[in-house]
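Give me the fold.
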Amino acid sequence: MNSPIKTMGNGITPRATPLNNIYIAQTYKQSTDMKRFIFILFSLLLITSVAMAQNKRIKRPTSLQNAAVSKAKPKVARKQGGGTRKVKQWKKPVSVQPEPATINLNDYVEVETEEPAIDFENTDPADLLLQGAVELDQGNYEEAIEIYKYLADKGQPQALNELGLCYYFGYGVPQNYAQAAECFRQSANQGNAVGQYNLGLMYHNGDGVMQDNNQAVDWYNKSAQQGNSDAQNNLGYMYNFGYGVTQDFNQALYWYTQSAQQGNSVAQYNLGWMYYSGEGVPQDYAKALEWYPKSAQQGDADAQNRLGWMFQNGYGITPDYYQAREWFQKAANQGNASAQNSLGLMYAKGQSVARDYTEAVSWFRKSADQGFAAGQYNLGNMYLNGAGVPQDYSSAAQWFHKAAAQGNASAQSDLGYLYENGLGVGQDLAAAAQWFQRAADQGNVNAQCNLADMYHTGYGVIKDFGKALELYSKAAEQGNPTAQYMLGTMYLNGEGVKKNKKEAKLWFQKAADQGYQDAINALNKK
């Protein structure tokens, strides 16, 4: 199982999609009158998808840190009788009278005023650093750069780090990753933990330097040893996947824990994942439920989504749809595509809310528009069944195509059905067989049955009892009663296999035990 571990800095962290792929309304076969395909009339299924290799479940870093700066007002010396500088301030226009009881930002405008220039030589460097942060926060980038360059020329490590951030983001200077990396390096070489972390991240991502995981690990380690929680989390990530070091789950667990205990929400999520999935540690839902809430309560959308998943499915806890919906809602409101899909499913199934297909469609669409395969598949099914939207086979086919292209087996199977029947697309039996094959290769039982039927009857393909038998067998082993019945008939009639009434009866019985009427009738024949 691929792991959703993530890493963190401040502000630009990409988040991998957790594996909450949920699907609804799949096609199945009914062989009572040998009809090849028929849809379950909106019976909802809940299954998890196989995570694709590119979707790593551990969160990883791509964000830079600025230095922790005190909120105390800096004491800055001003030049007397010397030059002045222009600064931006927010002031209420004179026309706004009287003074409002509450501040309305719409009544304020940005204006430029003049004040005495800063006397750098007579201001404490610590106050200058604080003033630089104030200028940066107010958007006075040129003033901030002036302060940071003055301090950087004197080798002040925090100023070097802040100057590096200005070069990285292009605040007051042309964006220049190489210059940013050099500033971080000078800061890091003086032992500044934040500079070390940022330099490690530059090597990790190959920004301004050649990508080098070994260097990234080295600088993360230096910063982590000083207690930097983001560096500790990222170092855990490197051990988790063996980037720049030999893969070592124990070291990953150690560094995630060090970071998580400092309240780092990303590390808390990563610990939750390790215990949830049993990756590198014994699977322990109780411990997962210890760490996921800590992260979720800090607003981490992936942790909120995962927590909703655990409540919905009763992993380590009594199932609670109300709690599940609450956490899915929090994550969905932050744009988490997996949570949006899960929330749509809860509305479609009426779990803890009144069933509302229109609302379900709304959430599926939000998820689908972000490229989430399960959301695309589910939205396609809503169009297919005319639930919450007018029935539209063409739209169903379009969404199935999007999901199928991402490897979604259920979408591939249902797309095969549409091509076989010419619904929303031109009828194309060859395309139908191809999509069924792709889904069948992933173990999709409906596709295995449908493709087996095509080979059994020679419909759209060359008749091949051997292939039909193989596909029916795979589906039958998964407990599909239609496949069990058809497998029984092939053994009874000696199609692709030597006649074997005993084996036929065995498979008829398996199907009959599930209430499959054709199998019951076959057993009752003398």
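The longest strand covers residues 84-91.
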